[in-house]
């Protein structure tokens, strides 16, 4: 399977255009320091170091393009082929990235810029699953009991958590399937647009079966300033 994956051209899209409203800092979240280097650096470096990734398209708000270019140059992130502007939503941002990937790409990997602790094993697992099934998502089984609430915050029901998974990134898809999914959601705008919080949901929207790949508990998403402390502790543990 690994040999099969390596024969394909894989483009990575890194959405990093989120507002980061819960990250209470004057500095934009992805440029906040994690072990003396920007969060975004760690996310991009993991993809840079994976031999299966051929190119990286970074999606970020236009006012931060110069800062992103300096980061790419300083840390010699040579696989970053384009830096494109973010959209109003995550879906818009990833679409902007999809429009700039190489025409010869056969698979698209999407990874959040705010997930700096992703490791190469997880990247390779999601790629291998996508090669076999066409679409894959890294995810973890839900540990907590989940309640579905209705009117007045009254519990409607309690789903069986054995069937519940918390999605992460990377998420990997055949390029033609991803283009089809984004084409459909664009057509749905006139009739009331659905809310998609990850790319796997768009693939599900066109009937694609998405393979769940066992994620990593260390692959956390930086949401608040407190998450920086957690990430630093996890990085410290890796070095021991």
Supply the key terms.
two-stranded antiparallel sheet, 22% strand, single chain, 7-stranded mixed β-sheet, 8 helices, 11 strands, 240 residues, alpha/beta, Spore Coat Polysaccharide Biosynthesis Protein SpsA, Chain A
Structural summary, described in words:
The protein has 240 residues and is of the alpha/beta class. The chain has one domain: Spore Coat Polysaccharide Biosynthesis Protein SpsA, Chain A, CATH 3.90.550. The chain is built from 8 helices and 11 strands. The chain has helices at residues 2-6, 39-48, 65-74, 90-98, 120-133, 175-187, 199-205, 225-239, and strands at 10-15, 33-34, 37-38, 53-60, 80-85, 107-110, 135-141, 148-149, 155-157, 165-174, 211-214. The strands form 3 sheets. The chain has a 7-stranded mixed β-sheet with strand order 5-4-1-6-10-7-11, sandwiched between helices. A two-stranded antiparallel ribbon has the order 2-3. It has a two-stranded antiparallel sheet with strand order 8-9. Helix 6 crosses helix 7 (199-205). The longest helix is centred in the last third of the chain and has 15 residues, at 225-239.
């Amino acid at each position: 399977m690994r040999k099969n994956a390596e024969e394909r051209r894989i483009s990575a899209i890194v959405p990093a255009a989120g507002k980061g409203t819960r990250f209470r800092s004057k500095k934009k979240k992805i440029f906040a320091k994690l072990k003396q280097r920007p969060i975004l650096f760690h996310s991009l470096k993991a993809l840079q170091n994976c031999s299966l990734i051929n190119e990286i398209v970074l999606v970020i708000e236009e006012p931060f393009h110069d800062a992103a270019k300096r980061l790419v140059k300083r840390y010699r992130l040579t696989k970053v082929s384009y830096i494109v502007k973010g959209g109003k939503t995550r879906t818009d941002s990833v679409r902007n990235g999809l429009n700039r990937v190489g025409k010869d790409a056969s698979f698209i990997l999407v990874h959040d810029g705010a997930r700096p602790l992703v490791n190469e094993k997880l990247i390779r697992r999601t790629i291998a699953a996508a090669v076999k099934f066409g679409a894959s998502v890294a995810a973890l089984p839900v540990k907590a009991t989940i309640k579905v609430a209705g009117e007045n915050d009254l519990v409607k029901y309690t789903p069986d958590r054995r069937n519940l998974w918390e999605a992460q990134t990377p998420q990997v898809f055949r390029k033609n399937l991803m283009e089809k999914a984004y084409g459909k959601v664009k057509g749905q705008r006139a009739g009331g647009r659905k809310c998609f919080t990850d790319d796997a949901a768009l693939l599900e929207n066109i009937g694609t079966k998405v393979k769940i790949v066992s994620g990593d508990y260390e692959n956390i998403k930086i949401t608040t300033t407190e998450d920086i402390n957690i990430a630093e502790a996890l990085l410290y543990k890796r070095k021991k």
